[in-house]
Amino acid sequence: MKKFLTVIFTLYQIFIFASIPQKEEIRKQMAIPSTETVRGQKDGVGYARIKEQMDEIFNISSEPPSPEVFGEEPPSSALCVIVPHDDYLYAGRLYRILVPLIKAKTVFIIGPLHRWRDFEIKNKIVLDSYSHWRTPDGNVKVSQVRDLIVKGLSEDKYVVNNTASDSEHSIEGPLYFLKHSNPDVEIVPILVPPMDFQTMTSIMDELITVVGTYMEFNNLKVGEDFGFIISADAVHYGKDFDYIPYGEGGCDALEKAVKEDKEIMTNLLSESVTQKRIKAIFERFQDLYSPEKAKITWCGRFSIPFGLFLSSNLYKVANARKERWKVLYGHPLCYSTSVNSPTLSSKTGLGTTAPSNLYHFVGYPGVYFNEALKHPLEQLREIPQQSP
Fold first, then answer.
1. CB within 8 A of 244, min separation 6: which ones?
2. Where is mean pLDDT largest: 5-19, 64-78, 348-362?
3. Neighbours of 182 (CB within 10 A)
4. What span, in angstroms and rounded, lies between the C-alpha atoms of 206 and 369?
5. What is the mean pLDDT of residues 5-29?
6. Mean pLDDT of 234-254
7. Are 176 and 47 in contact (CB under 8 A)?
8. In the structure, what pLDDT confidence band is assigned to residue 384 with cuts at 50, 70 and 90?
9. What's the number of domains the chain is made of?
10. Any idea what DSSP says for residue 374?
């Protein structure tokens, strides 16, 4: 009987281990496989592979028509942006407007881990151990801050998993635009799988202590020294996304889905970034305590609250510790979908990885965050409005 149970337990372990994607399998799926020290490229169709393609997309994405705007002119720079990570031919116009606003020397790029179920990772952030990330414009160095985080966080708060990183495209899309516009940048890549709000808060407490102490000791500021890119597409609409609250598709469904996205941007991703607002954002996307199931199919449903949590608190630590009226402040800037604007046309071989039509479309949010002067009582009076 003991031998039988041992065999069953061994087979169970083999089955579980085999079900998790392995390094060789994932690297075969990459357009440019990673080496042991340099992270390669996952998507070689929707994103630029060579400098010629990056030059082209950077130029043509500034051509009209512009994405729908919320009435604000883009600033010259920003402390933090929310930007999509879909194919460049679909979302390039938003990348082009938002990513060059980040001019810091070191940039946290915070994205979702789409395949968290496959890797059985949740309730902790995902880091990699690569020294550099490859881009079409040359390698980007990973900042030593990443290694400080590994040393400073409790072991239950993070996992270092290069294979999970190799499987994910949400960081490399914004990264290539960042490298093109900010050639000397260093990065801190962080992937955020599902976690409940209490877990996110617990991770954040330690992360802010580690990074905030480093910033204070070295007299570093958010803006010139540290910036933040939050990678997030908005609604994924269609039967294959298992999200059709307004019918299977068509013009009416598009109009209602776009209205819902814009309400999230104007009601939640705007004004003072406070703990109350971050919690409201989290709860709009999923339940506070049972977060696996999404209320709406924004794939940035964890990267957005996490990124705003981190950026706003490090801003307070480094820039506004003694100035309570200074706050990180959100400005919805632009929005589009994969069907609202003409798809960009490439002559260098860039393509698309998925269809786009009225029955299968994705939304693209564009938001920037800068500092504002708001009296503490005024910050408290701001009530984040939950759209239905």
1. 237, 238, 253
2. 348-362
3. 18
4. 23
5. 67
6. 97
7. yes
8. low
9. 1
10. -
pLDDT confidence tier of residue 161, bands split at 50, 70 and 90:
very high
The two tokens of residue 141 are 């160095």
SS3 content of the chain, % helix, strand, coil (to 5): 40, 20, 40
In a domain, 386, yes or no: no
- Has residue 189 been placed in a domain? yes
pLDDT value at residue 8: 44
Distance of alpha carbon 180 from alpha carbon 201, whole angstroms: 34
| C-alpha–C-alpha distance, residues 62 and 54, integer Å | 13
Residue 287 has, within 13 A of its CA and on its CB side, a CA count of 5
| Residue 82 near residue 95 (C-beta atoms within 8 A) | no
Q: Dig out the tokens for 259 from the structure.
A: 């209205």
Q: 84 and 232 in contact (C-beta within 8 Å)?
A: yes
pLDDT of residue 386: 59
- Report pLDDT for 183: 98
Q: Is the dihedral of CA 282, 112, 97, 38 positive or negative?
A: positive
Beta bridge mates, 82: 230, 367
Rounded (10°) angle between helices 88-98 and 172-181: 50
Tell me if 388 is assigned to some domain. no
When the pLDDT of each residue in the chain is averaged and rounded to a whole number, the result is 92
pTM: 0.93
The answer to whether 329 touches 271, Cβ cutoff 8 Å, is: yes
Range of the domain at 19: 2-381
What pLDDT is attached to residue 70? 87
| Amino acid identity, position 95 | Y
Note whether residue 223 is domain-resident. Answer: yes
**Of 251-265, 312-326, 343-357, the least confident:** 312-326
Distance CA 257, CA 358 (A): 11
Residue 19 token pair: 């079900």
Q: List the CATH number of the domain containing 68.
A: 3.40.830.10
Looking only at the bridges linking them, the beta strands covering 132-133 and 38-39 are: parallel
What letter represents residue 373's amino acid? L
**C-alpha distance from residue 161 to each of 15, 100, 192, 310, 312 (Å):** 20, 29, 12, 21, 27
CB 86 within 8 A of CB 109: no
Closest CA to 361 of 264, 222, 237: 237
